[in-house]
Amino acid sequence: MWILIVAVLLGGYLFSLKVHPLRKCPVCKMTGRHFGAVFKNNYRRCRKCGGSGRLDRWGTQAFFGGTGHTGIYPKK
Predict the structure, then answer these.
(1) What does the domain layout of the chain look like in residue ranges?
(2) Residue partners of 57: CB distance under 8 A and separation at least 6
């Protein structure tokens, strides 16, 4: 019984990764901008996400090789 529950949960998680492979960037909070510490009005592109505001989820990288933070899986 437990094996069936784990299989259903794992299948649901993998399906979720295929449908929604990206997450919000924890540094810029999806703005794509990083504001300076001294000059508060100036900003640059976020280094973590490259200015897109999105990153691959952990499972997307682990199970499917990642999307390069674009949300589009590469063709095999």
Answers:
(1) 20-71
(2) 17, 20, 21, 22, 23
